[in-house]
Amino acid sequence: ATGGFGVPGLYVLSDPGAVDERSKKGVMAINFGKFFEKGLSLGTGQCNVKKYNRYLRDMIISGKADLSFAVSPRIGINEAPTAYEK
């Protein structure tokens, strides 16, 4: 089986307040051997936040938009291998 790994949104080149040294430098540690072995695809892209943020916010507040179908559960990085197996 294959799958995808998507990173939409705004990703900054550095984050001095990040929790670890890699993140402070804007570096993500990915095991490309496993990534390739499992046949995963990687997609990235910035969201056009300024175009939609107020409109979307208002729809969520009014109850007209329910984004629960699009939001994945949050897990820690150490839980990722187990989540992948599910």
* Biggest pleated sheet: 2 strands, parallel
Helix percentage range: 25-40%
Average residue-wise pLDDT: 81
Secondary structure class reads alpha+beta
Order of helices and strands: EHHEHH
Q: Judging from the principal axes of the Cα atoms, what is the shape?
A: extended
How do the strands line up in the largest sheet?
A: 1-2
Strand content: 5-15%
> Runs with pLDDT <50, length 5+?
none
Radius of gyration: 16 Å
Question: What is the CA–CA distance across the termini?
Answer: 12 Å
Write out key terms for the chains shown.
86 residues; extended
Description:
- The chain contains four helices and two strands.
- It has 86 residues and is an alpha+beta fold.
Topology at a glance:
Elements: E1 4-8, H1 21-24, H2 32-37, E2 41-45, H3 49-62, H4 80-85
Short description:
The chain has 86 residues and is an alpha+beta fold. It has four helices and two strands, in the order E-H-H-E-H-H.
